[in-house]
Fold each of these.
Amino acid sequence: MTRYRHPQWQEQMKIQVDYNNMMADYVGKEEGFTRQHIEALADQIQGAHKNMVEKRAAGGMDWRNLPFHQEEVVQQILKTAEELRNRCDAFVVLGIGGSALGPLAVQTALNHLHYNELPADKRGGPRFYVLDNVDPERVAALFDVIDPAQTVFNVISKSGSTAETMAQFMIVYQMLREKIGSGYVAQIIATTDAEKGNLINIARDEGYTTFIIPAGVGGRYSELSPVGLLPAAVCGIDIRELLAGAAYMDRLCEQADVFANPAYMLAVLQYLAMGRGKNISVMMPYADSLKYFADWYAQLWAESLGKRLSLSGEEVFAGQTPVKALGTTDQHSQVQLYTEGPFDKVVTFLGVGRYRTEVNIPRVFENVPGIAFLGGHTLGELITAEQLATEYALMKARRLSFTITLPEINAFTVGQLIQLLEIQTAFAGELLNINAFDQPGVEEGKNATYALLGRPGYEAKKQELASRPPKNPAYII
Ligand SMILES: O=P(O)(O)OC[C@H]1O[C@](O)(CO)[C@@H](O)[C@@H]1O
């Protein structure tokens, strides 16, 4: 039996959410919360739970079902992935936001940290790139390091119309036609909505291999759909284990009791903290492999909760600004601010129980006491000690923090982490009484871009832009 089906192994691999340092017993009663604070929200928590259950039953949270109902899709993905591994040297994701950050986070978490630099026989698949910007220098630089004839491009867009992704796709399409001729069709795979947008129609007309993002799954909640599963499988990641981890966490997070439900507890305490003006949510993994999880979480938390209007239409200006940090690196850059600056943050540490590899610090310079004490320890011991020490320093300075620990980084625990943070976000949305699944605030910028580039239908917006007050040269130095 595969390891992720063993209840005992699952139990060993269960992610732990430690909220001691959010509580008054640890950070003091001025900053910390008590059981009574949480219990006082009982009705609101119950109402939010009921909404989650009802929305899920009504099909409003299809992303939560991704770990359970995709066997057919998984089989197609595995078949495609195997075929691609045999024929391509590079696999490039064209996408942005929710169509890029999840694939990047999972790949970095689960494959070698210098995956692309390994020789082909030591990699689980082709070299992997995520092109999530339209910086011309970056696009040109990628073209310098890939062989178009041996590269497959996975264009991912839920809406099928995001300007950045479509521009990248148009460039790649033209480049492939020029460089390899009619065979280019096999070098493009589309991942998009079954109906919406331009990409699905182009993919059908052109005959690309296409994977569908289910209708009820929004971009930032789509990592466990083909958006993330195909790139992961192509790079040799066990996507069944990833989904099993997410399913395991989902079940834990079905419980109505906030004291038993890790996602609800995270959301409730963040909600209480927001109520006290903690407007910044720092995510600080103590593992380079989890660095991009902080990026993925930043979009999830920011786009989901940053809302002007409540569900009942009042102006609430909700949200918490996500900040990305990396332990230990940012101890030497940001932690000074976290311990002594404004009391406006909640830090979420992401820790690792056991690192996958270990490096010994040799016993050298034994006559230099200031560094000799390091000799004989491992780097794993050092990074873990630094994490504990930073948690302690923050606690002593009365700063709020959580610690989420992955017993080890593997597909099962990473799947759990994705589902945990998505449910946390959705539940925080319920508590804040906002829509955690839309992003109306990005429309103005998108429309202005369309107008500036002359998209038909945006003439009025172009005029509006042209009639804005000219910039005052006196304010430009
Ligand atoms: O997958 P799409 O539709 O191209 O969208 C990319 C990203 O753009 C946004 O719509 C914001 O502009 C995100 O919500 C989304 O993840």
Amino acid sequence: MTAIEARGLTYSYGGDPVLSGVDLTVSSGEFVALVGVNGCGKSTLLRMFAGLLRPTTGTVLLDGVPLTGFSRREVARRVAVLHQTLPPVPGLTVRQLVRQGRYPTRGALGMLWEPDAGHHADQALDLTGVAHLADRVLDTLSGGERQRVRLALAVAQRAPVLLLDELTAHLDIRHQLEVLGLVRELRATRGLTVVAVLHEIDHAARFAERVVALHGGRVHADGSPGRVITPELLAEVFGVAGRVVVDELHGTPRCLPDHPLAPGPAHGARAPAPTE
Ligand SMILES: Nc1ncnc2c1ncn2[C@@H]1O[C@H](COP(=O)(O)OP(=O)(O)OP(=O)(O)O)[C@@H](O)[C@H]1O
């Protein structure tokens, strides 16, 4: 079943379009990695998937229904977003945030009416490895701790679609592997659909089953990591000459970037042949 579909999406913040004709279908239960250079529109696309931005033209469909047909609460029941920032509420603790942050389950008076809300929040804190931080005040947390709390907040929402932007920002290598492994596990155990912006191509290769590369406002490549992550992609999309080898342990591609290609005509050229 299709979870999210983008049909002919364009978006402009006022100047030249950032996205100009994005077509993308994400099936239920898929883990899709979005890759591309800084500023190519990955976050913009995720924000449109979450209903936070309206496309200039084109349509986003959730479960086959145009997003515009859902209220904000209905969207939030279906789609959880990893927020870029935590609310600047003085004195708010991690547990309070994750319990109260379950926006879609709130009643008219802003009270949590779902009997399991506290349990789900505590479970999300456990799952994301931040239970020990539950009583800490948000603004005392380190960057990496805040990042994992943001993930707990998204997981606590228990929406079937998880949109993750900058998931591994601020995390050390162990925590990067842990959160990516956790997301993969959630996808397997809860059948979540995951769309994640990943800057580390090797992470995309290792953890996602499908990689979508945005370039020039469109989908430039879309397929399994083995098909999409190639020296040509490094050259055409990232402007980098490099090699791609197969990681024998995981059977996934691994990039060995060598040097930036000269800007201009060289960008888009094929990467040089591997050297010894
Ligand atoms: N609110 C805004 N107003 C004007 N321009 C914006 C706004 N938000 C983003 N942009 C511009 O739109 C383009 C796409 O931004 P976006 O954040 O979607 O890129 P991205 O691919 O997620 O980048 P990065 O990898 O650096 O996070 C960039 O050129 C950015 O400067």
